[in-house]
Amino acid sequence: MLRFGVIGCGYISHVHVNDIVNNLHGAKVTAIYDINKSAAEQMIDEFDLGIEPSKSIDELINSSEVDSVLVFSKNDTHTEPILKALAIDKPVFTEKPLATTTEEAKQIVDAEVKKGKRMIQVGYMRRYDPYYQELKQTIDNGEIGTPLMGYCRHFAPAPTTNDFQTSDVINDSFVHEISVVSWLFNDDYKSVQVQYARPNSTNTAAGLKEPQVATLKLKNGAIVNTYLDINSHYGYEVKCQVIGETGIAELPDMPSTRVHKDEKIYNSVPLESGGRFEKAFQLEFQDFIDHVSTGKEPTGPSAWTGYTVTFTANKALESLKNGQIVDLEFGQKPDLYK
Amino acid sequence: MLRFGVIGCGYISHVHVNDIVNNLHGAKVTAIYDINKSAAEQMIDEFDLGIEPSKSIDELINSSEVDSVLVFSKNDTHTEPILKALAIDKPVFTEKPLATTTEEAKQIVDAEVKKGKRMIQVGYMRRYDPYYQELKQTIDNGEIGTPLMGYCRHFAPAPTTNDFQTSDVINDSFVHEISVVSWLFNDDYKSVQVQYARPNSTNTAAGLKEPQVATLKLKNGAIVNTYLDINSHYGYEVKCQVIGETGIAELPDMPSTRVHKDEKIYNSVPLESGGRFEKAFQLEFQDFIDHVSTGKEPTGPSAWTGYTVTFTANKALESLKNGQIVDLEFGQKPDLYK
Amino acid sequence: MLRFGVIGCGYISHVHVNDIVNNLHGAKVTAIYDINKSAAEQMIDEFDLGIEPSKSIDELINSSEVDSVLVFSKNDTHTEPILKALAIDKPVFTEKPLATTTEEAKQIVDAEVKKGKRMIQVGYMRRYDPYYQELKQTIDNGEIGTPLMGYCRHFAPAPTTNDFQTSDVINDSFVHEISVVSWLFNDDYKSVQVQYARPNSTNTAAGLKEPQVATLKLKNGAIVNTYLDINSHYGYEVKCQVIGETGIAELPDMPSTRVHKDEKIYNSVPLESGGRFEKAFQLEFQDFIDHVSTGKEPTGPSAWTGYTVTFTANKALESLKNGQIVDLEFGQKPDLYK
Amino acid sequence: MLRFGVIGCGYISHVHVNDIVNNLHGAKVTAIYDINKSAAEQMIDEFDLGIEPSKSIDELINSSEVDSVLVFSKNDTHTEPILKALAIDKPVFTEKPLATTTEEAKQIVDAEVKKGKRMIQVGYMRRYDPYYQELKQTIDNGEIGTPLMGYCRHFAPAPTTNDFQTSDVINDSFVHEISVVSWLFNDDYKSVQVQYARPNSTNTAAGLKEPQVATLKLKNGAIVNTYLDINSHYGYEVKCQVIGETGIAELPDMPSTRVHKDEKIYNSVPLESGGRFEKAFQLEFQDFIDHVSTGKEPTGPSAWTGYTVTFTANKALESLKNGQIVDLEFGQKPDLYK
């Protein structure tokens, strides 16, 4: 039974801890820390964990009750606990991003490379989604030939808060496409470009300018456009279409009751994103548990993936300023990640 | 240029005459008769035909200006003009039904058989519909193996008038399925059965009881259910699904703009039936013109088809009284129709 | 932590025990019995349960380590353990059927009614399937008006063994439709009828005659046809379409990668039935655990449901002999099940 | 009866003349000229026109038997006959392009403006396609709000000849998107950009480099990407998706028999482009006939549309050289075209 120490008790932490307790197997939560102690207490209570909150991140990481560390704290606080856990050989699952700055992300990669084994998995869960998995398999089976172009759509019905920023579109939404496109196309990125389309006049978040068209080019020449719209109104929808030499493969529409009514044939699109990747969250975590609990290196999205996504997202933000193409030079990929 | 004499100037007559004048080639209208003279005058005027209304059906049929007779008058008035045209060797296109009674229909078949050549085409246009054509081709190509079962749906949004009768469901709607199912399944009917389902409480036509489930069995054992609903509310829709030994083939949904809106992905279903078989009406008539104008026998739905459909529809009405299965014995099919 | 005693270690037992151990929460397996002791040992080993096989059904049921009994043994062996568990107030989850004979099923119902509380859940899992759930919700929300007619399709690619019998089509396949149609239509059955369609010439199981068209009529007049085909060749597919007064609602096609290739746009249909109801199996069992572990009566498919399904299935087999309609008189439904 | 003089007897001329003779009404062909006299004779023969080929373009245009001129000759020979017909007040329908050079196209616009009335229609038929019409109506009805982004796909299975050039992708395929996008978005173009995606290794035409991603930006900020692939292998397909502030509207897949077979649910995609716009060709021509035969100015794609499409296509070819964005300055749109 793998023993997790959990850092951070926000929304995504609840999702994962709930899965660990109720839907997965082979692991349990033995330590919890949150900068706000009552949040940790509340979670302990909710899941009836029968433990005391850890007094510090260090205490949690170093606890003899903790085999592996889960980093679910705020985006810009991941680096320190990751590096500390690494230092004492405890595997880490961190929610995205690996780090918010390219430098810190690189620092983590370097530390892991120095260890000489993969110990970190980053929570880019889409690769575990059964529909993305099947899409990937279809491509890798050669059913559509070599992939040449792609078209993605990542739409949410409305900003979750009025504080929603343009940069959140990149850091919360687009990073997911960054995390899967190179995987689907089996190649590295060459450049990124993000342009504003015609502004959405219904947008109510002052700091948000959208929709956006983001273009990823791969080293092999493939071009993939992602349309990002946080004000779709109609619903939450994630689409991905890969065009190969001999065919096209794309994610299906999510299934729902098909209705004939009022001069229409329709099926529903949810407003909430919650359910779409529920299974992916479970599969990524069970996979992490299965590897780590048996002494294997995790094979999910690696620190290198985390680094390249952060790198690309930061360059995407740079591109947004003037809409120009920004080249991506990640540096040499260490052998550890090949 | 084939010269048509037109009997009857109602709705379907307008559809056909408009096609002859505007959308088809090789034929023109040279005589028109309607029991209501002003209806004939109005049609002559509308299509700028430059002719006088015929004074009688006999005058029209016998006119030296008429090569072929089109029978578009009321359902129970088809027999006389068909037999008279046949008598002087003028090919006939008649709207469905061939005749309203089984006896009259048989009388027409006998007269044609005596002539020794096919001179009559009955307006069961669905066989000319491109989608039914493709369905038929798919079956005949063996793509789904031998057909074993079928499921049809024939839905209209609401009765066209408050006088709409239960028998109209059979005579106006179900006859179309009768006309295509044996053709699709390449076999003759063995029995028909029509049962009322749970009554539709929204129905406003006093003489109408529906919906109904009509079951056709073929001599080879195949079973085909047709669901008939004149109060669908949502729209006009015709579906046909054929289940074969190795697969299923079915009519596609009619295409329309695909919309993502209001938590739905939808496409439209029309309330009107008008557009659905527009192309079929044109193709059936052009085919009749092409055959008759070159001295060939028409190959569309024959008098025999007309007879078997009327026969079956009348037995279906008999079945409706108690929901029992009624066997169908059409008698020996004459060689002319094999 | 609810403690289960498991009777029977076949395929479906593995599905449930695996879920209990790995994917659900709140329960564990503390006793196992199989008539073949090595099957029990193997399962204990596979799931690392650290227990000894029970020596008899009685020992298992009476064990102080067992709070609730799971009956997964052969179809005709369910009655005895169910009644014995009931006698000592231990809740039971039994796989379908409740019993193979109408008499035994009724005996169980009577025993439960005498207890005065619901203690039995029968494994008709489709009601827990998210797609059926959404279909039911759509109907109950009034989105399609009162349901009037239905059309179901239950197709498997090929018989699982050469011993597959015609009666297995009813007992293995059709029972699932029996278990959901009355639930979806909110009414009881009035009659059942099963007819053979044109025989499938590709069938290789000597004792199997198919496909079949099964017709359920409800007391309110609704008619529901189910097409049963164990030799579909193309795949495993379960469809259900409910036609209401103002619209139609139906199960969606199961989602899979959409591919454009070789002059086709397609998505895949699995040959295996395994994955289709995976989630339903988990939800039904978690629901049973959640109720029983907190002292509540289970609210899933009841003994009464189990009795009516067995009753209807047996009458369906009677109908198969000559294709006639067989009326269904279940007797008075006890208050316990209202 | 409008009398047409036809210049050029190639493939598209046959399509139009066949329609005029067989499927449309209100017009006939009274003069034909082709630089290759036998081509004209052959067409006269095929359609049984009973006329002699014209001896020159001038003779045809000036003939008292000709009311209107149809220009179907080679792409770079349209300007002269258009200007000559205009000079003597005879309306012209010209196949695309209006002219191959921006200068000649502008010269024709200037000549028409000088006339002070619209006399020219250019054969960009997509605006008459019922599916594009419905898409346009959906947008103009406000059903998806203001259009912000678009995604088009224009795929053919293989180059029609080994001589197929990269520039043909722009001039034969992309011009159609150019002709509809500004119409759908109700705005003028700001820039065009065409980039090569990863090269298709299956391509066999030496002068062809593809696929390409073409980006049109509109003055209002909307961005529309068109993916162009002449080696799709799987079939001929034209897609157009318009993303508005509150929803998405897109062309439907073309309907065809839906088949369940071999572990797939599929419908067919044609290899041939022929049928896709058959109805559009008829509707554009009937519309031209209806306007011109009653003395009205044609309202289909105008000379100005023809000029802007040629302008944009030529800039697209310029962009192809280095993939850069090219601004589009059409000059002031004359009042005649507002």
Automatic annotation (TrEMBL), chains A, B, C, D:
> Which residue intervals define the domain Gfo/Idh/MocA-like oxidoreductase N-terminal in the entry?
2-124
Which InterPro entries is this protein grouped with?
Gfo-Idh-MocA_inositol_DH, Gfo/Idh/MocA-like_OxRdtase_N, GFO_IDH_MocA-like_dom, NAD(P)-bd_dom_sf
Question: Which residues are in the GFO/IDH/MocA-like oxidoreductase domain?
Answer: 132-249
Q: Which domain of life is it from?
A: Bacteria
Q: Which SUPFAM superfamilies match?
A: Glyceraldehyde-3-phosphate dehydrogenase-like, C-terminal domain, NAD(P)-binding Rossmann-fold domains
Task: Tell me a Gene Ontology molecular-function term this record carries.
Answer: nucleotide binding
A Pfam family (short name) is GFO_IDH_MocA
What is the recorded name of this protein?
Answer: Inositol 2-dehydrogenase
The species is: Bombilactobacillus bombi
